[in-house]
Specification:
Two copies of one chain form a homodimer. The first copy, chain A, is mostly helical. Chain A has a single domain, classed as Orthogonal Bundle (Tetracycline Repressor, domain 2), CATH 1.10.357.10. Helices cover about 75% and strands about 0% of the residues of chain A. The first copy, chain A, contains twelve helices and no strands. The longest helix of chain A has 29 residues. Chain A starts with a helix and ends in a 7-residue tail after the last helix. The interface between A and B is large, with 53 and 53 residues. Chain A binds a DNA duplex through helix 3.
Chain lengths: ~210, ~210
Amino acid sequence: MSTKNKILDAAELLFADKGFNGTSLREITSSAGVNLAAVNYHFGSKKELIKAVMSRYMNELAPKLELALSVIVHSDDKPNLDEVFFAFVEPLLYLNEFKVNGTSIFLQLLGRGYTDSQGFLRWFLTTQYPNVFTHFTKAVHKAYPELTTQEMFWRLHFTMGTIVFTMSSSDALMDISRNDFNNDVSIETLINKVIPYVAAGVGAPIIAE
Amino acid sequence: MSTKNKILDAAELLFADKGFNGTSLREITSSAGVNLAAVNYHFGSKKELIKAVMSRYMNELAPKLELALSVIVHSDDKPNLDEVFFAFVEPLLYLNEFKVNGTSIFLQLLGRGYTDSQGFLRWFLTTQYPNVFTHFTKAVHKAYPELTTQEMFWRLHFTMGTIVFTMSSSDALMDISRNDFNNDVSIETLINKVIPYVAAGVGAPIIAE
DNA sequence: ACCTAGTTCAAACATCTGTTTAAAATAGCT
DNA sequence: AGCTATTTTAAACAGATGTTTGAACTAGGT
């Protein structure tokens, strides 16, 4: 295994667990069993390492996600919101084939990135993978055309918040569920629980201002 | 104004903006115009200062929130979910009387605390203010008795995520709204936008597993 | 005026941070 | 083998962090 990949593998676990700001290069390199200077040699800086960690997942996810959403957009039928959100499930779960616990790790990273580092990841995703967003908003508009652009903007950000927050603390929540309810919840059932929630939220009736 | 309050006032603004980990004691003390050592003299440590900042708001909020929720719980009528969530509005907005921009600052702090510092604030809130949570779950149960305890657990955490994430990035979202839609959104209208969303999410039909 | 308890202050402390350096080791190629 | 480019290494760097120190200062009470 190359040093570069050793670093990426160690970094993503630590980033997911403790956030980007909360993880030092020394933790990463010692966990990866490589020299401290290797990060700056191979990636240039910590910020570039973060981008590389995210890109590895996004490059796997984005094409599959765009395809699944564009099928909905170009279909003749009117989708309902649950279908739109369920389009995420298969591409997300495919990350488990790509890497062990890939789905869970990626979603946790996403959560970390949105709250850590003052919106840097939001910029990264929207500029590097804009098609995912445009396809998604088109699909939602098709399912709920009465929703104004503004209202959709807000509700999609609420949705982002729900997903991202849930996933960034998914380990803690799963622990509570296991202890309090004797109920072991996998990342897949968690996804299946959150989708009806966000679909109902986005589909909520519009309130007059 | 006492040194202690100068520190609290400066700290809450910086914490809300840049997170707990992202704010140094030197930033706080220089913004407050006091000596660096004052924090450790008056509060003992940075962690205790964080608790103090949160407590100042929670002690104001908790009794009002408990009252509003217990009214619903002890009423003879069956509430609907929107009413349960709207019970939060008045107590939250009252924080604006308590401090300028109090509502917004508090909600941002809440958001920061949930993602920073590995769940320390979750522990703090649930142990220091358990009544708020029990009243809340009782009210939700009254409005939606078919929801099992387990399902409610998940949906309430989804809700927490929506609120907390939205509010921690509320400044950025409000900026986008102002620039892209020429639409200036106050914290109050933001609250009124998010409540139908979370109410619909919690009220979503139950899916067979 | 004096003493005492509480408070402020500049300075230092020890530790951690990301990054850079220059020498050493390794690999690939002819 | 010998040369070259790439990679690894230990060490140092410069700056930031939370905390502690001990002296200076400031009330308040007698």
